[in-house]
Every structure is written in structure tokens, then in C-alpha cells.
Predict the 3D structure of the following.
Amino acid sequence: MKFITLLSAAYVGGALRHPHEGSIPVSDDDAKRLVDENLAVDDTDGFTEDQMADVPEESITIASGPISSTSAENPHLSQVAPAPIPEAKPGRKPASKE
């Protein structure tokens, strides 16, 4: 496991991460890829062995099932009927000049 600091936004563990997040614990393979692509710097030297042992690597688990499925409570916009157009409100009358 290594700690990296991103220089620009990049995908880490399947999620888009940003430089303002600070040091991120990642696998050795992810760290090598990001450093080789000049997207991150290796910060592993700044951490002690005890600190590194207490932190899990970043990982993303994907839910089972097709990605395109949506829940019934929150359907995609293309799956719902269009909203009715509201009736036009009467305009304001100009102020009387007295």
C-alpha cells in the first residue's frame, strides 16, 4: 500500500478523486499508474509503519445487477410522463399614473 497526493482529478479505485482530498491510500499498482502518468506524487515516505497499518486501501465495490436498472421510486426522466404545462397567469396591470 502507498499514499499518494493527486496533482489533478483522477480515477482512483473506480471513483473520481480530487487534489483537495489530501493523501489517499491506494494499492501499489494504482500508485505506480498515477505517478507514471504525472497525475500524483508518492507521499509514502511521510507516513510511519503504524500509520500505514491502520488505514485500508481505497476500493470501490460495485452493486450486483445491471447498471441500467433504476428503482421504482426514482425513475429516469425518460421513463416518466412529461409534466403538464401550467396555465398562463394573467399579466400585471400597469400602475396608474395619477
Notes: The radius of gyration is 26 Å. The mean pLDDT is 78. The longest strand covers residues 2-6. Residues 2-53 form one domain.
